[in-house]
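Schema walkthrough. Field components (list of strings):
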Amino acid sequence: MPQSSPTIPKFPALPAVAMRALPLAPLSISMTAYARRVAKSHPGLFRRLGVHDHARFVLDPTDLPFVICLEPNGGTPRVQVMRGPGEGAARIAGPLAALLGLVHGAFDGDALFFSRDLVIEGDTAAALALRNAVDDAELDLSQEIAAMSGPLAAPIKRLIGFAERRTGVSLTRPEEVGAW
Amino acid sequence: MVMEIVCPAGTPAALRAAVKAGAHTIYCGFADETNARNFPGLNFDRTEMREGIAFAHFHGAKVLVAINTFPRAGDEAIWHRAVGDAESCGADAVILADIGLLDHAARSHPGLRRHVSVQAAAANADMINLYAVEFGIRRVVLPRVLSVPEIAAINAETEVETEVFVFGGLCVMAEGRCSLSSYATGQSPNMNGACSPAEHVEYNDQAGVLSARLGGFTIHRAAPGESAPYPTLCKGCFSAGDKSGHLFEDPVSLNAEHLIPQLQKAGVTALKIEGRQRSRSYVAQVVRNFRAAVDAADAGLPMPEGMMAQLSEGQSSTAGAYRKTWR
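Field assembly_structure (string):
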């Protein structure tokens, strides 16, 4: 019997509308710098992409008014934030919380695919390689932001923790609860 | 004795997650066509395998290396090298399907424990005992076509350990004998290590209707809100005349967690979880669930409530052939 999937929080509509006014060029520059920092600390991620390490991926948070085009570029990634559908080898679309949950290993990609919370279009092999590479990298995006923030790291971590608890969105890599 | 949980790992991170979640044993493969989950971004290079095995051993878990495709004529050396590398990386056993490769492993690596893969479709005691006599196999992974009484009958007639699937993707065919994927893509799980290789799969979402194409053929359309299956021909939904339906099999996953006490009574040694293509999140959740279940079975306690429906293909599950009402 089909079962309901866990509820994926949606980005609130009002702030999403307000984000239409965001200047995209500075956002792209900061996200490129951020991606390059992640690339430096996780070189294995790009090795695992194999022949797809120069593909262009369109990451589409469906509850935000822009898409994120990511080019791994062999380990020197470029990020372009843009309005409209964007063009690339593969498109991975879903609510922002689903995409962040995938990055942090809080959700299983196949389960999100079964429940239709995640849509993949275009080059399926490239999309699969990216998903598997990210899953293996054990990323913690908040940790990376905190590490870039110098003396503000501690308050930023606290702020992110507060936002995570309030929204239910996976903003950090969850602690592995296990047998040991 | 507690039944052994044999858990999949498609990446080193998944292996670590499995160990931390309490898996007794992890199975994984090299990043090439020698294993039957040869998908982009998955599997282990030689260094990762050596490090993964060392990590598992340090925490008291075992690692089995699946080299379970059928060697291509003229290229047997690739498969031979994989067996040798598995041994030098410290693998506790190799999981093999091909008779020639079993013979090579038995002759060239006699100290390396050998298991027969589900891909060999060894479904009766005579066949299993022949593998034991000829190639010294210690364990067989039984195909997913047997009922619990049939598994008990096999165990009554063999000293070889049996391992059975209890959770994950379910094939409609006897494993190792399915070529459906190759009709549409030119590649099969048996020779190339991938059923429905990703480079032949294409999805298209139009107004919420998700179409899946394999090798250019539309094999499934999911209406808005309807769960999506894997893009395999055996789970495809086809139309003929005025009828549409899943010609071979509904998109469901195997879940035999409630049969664990019966499988234990039937003499099964190990319970296998499918899903080397799945994430570390899946691995951790499924392992925790099954570890709790086998510990409960060992203590004579009731099975814990299942928690895994949302991880299942089609978000539905079945006990498959274990409760066979068909022949």
